[in-house]
Amino acid sequence: MTVEHVAVIALVVEVAVMVLARFGTERRHWNHYKQRGPAPQTGNDLTQASGVLYAVAAAAVAGAAVVTRAEMSLSAIGTFTLFGILLPACAAHSVMVLATRGRADRITRWHRGSACIVAAGGGIVSIGLL
After folding, report:
1. Is-above-0.90 flag for pTM?
2. What's the pLDDT at 79?
3. Residue 22 in contact with residue 103, Cβ under 8 Å?
4. pLDDT one-digit tens code per residue, 16-52
């Protein structure tokens, strides 16, 4: 299995995690609409990832690019930005939403740590997409 295969598998897993978190958020919205549950919190939105997660993913991408001596063209920078920073950070935020069932007050250091690992791993593996 090559680095490209691992990068594609990581990309598919990131998207699957984001879809699962979105389904959970929509379920909470639907339950609230039917008066079967509390109102969802604003932190459930997948695009509201913490700036720290973006920074962790960006640092991982930069480190991987330096170590592998990747060619820095405009398309490579665009690929790194989309697949190395944005998707891993949103997937990491989705991990926290799934782990806490959308309750921001229940986020612990364990949840934040696992989210940082997901963001860093996605950033490092994204180098295989070039």
Report:
1. no
2. 76
3. no
4. 877 877 777 777 777 777 887 777 766 655 556 677 8
The total of other beta-carbon atoms located within 10 Å of residue 50's CB is 17
Contact between 43 and 106 (Cβ < 8 Å): no
d(CA 92, CA 48): 11
Separation of alpha carbons 48 and 95, rounded Å: 13
CA dist 100 and 28 (Å) reads: 13
DSSP state of 85: I
- Dihedral angle of Cα 69, 75, 80, 81, to the nearest 10 degrees: 140
CB 106 within 8 A of CB 100: yes
Residue 74 near residue 31, CB atoms below 8 Å: no
Instruction: Report pLDDT for 18.
Output: 78
Distance (Å, whole) CA 112 – CA 66: 26
Q: Does residue 91 sit in helix, strand or coil?
A: helix
In whole angstroms, give the CA distance from residue 6 to residue 31: 37
Give CA–CA dist 61/72, Å, rounded.
12
Question: Is the CB of residue 60 less than 8 Å from the CB of residue 92?
Answer: no
